[in-house]
Amino acid sequence: MSDTTPQHKQPATNTSNNVEGQTAPFEYDFHVRYSEVDHRGLMTLPAVVNAFQDCSTFQSEVLGVGMRWLKQERHAWVLTHWHIAIDRYPALCEHITVGTFASRFRGVTAERFFYLRDDEDNFVAKGKSSWVFLNMETGKPARIEPRFVEPYGTHEPLPMPPESRRVVIPESREFRDPLTIRRGQIDTNEHVNNAEYVQMALEQLDREIDPHVLRVDYRRAAVLGDLVRPGIGRNKEGNLVITLDDTNDTMFASIELI
Question: Strand, helix or coil at 141?
Answer without folding.
Answer: strand
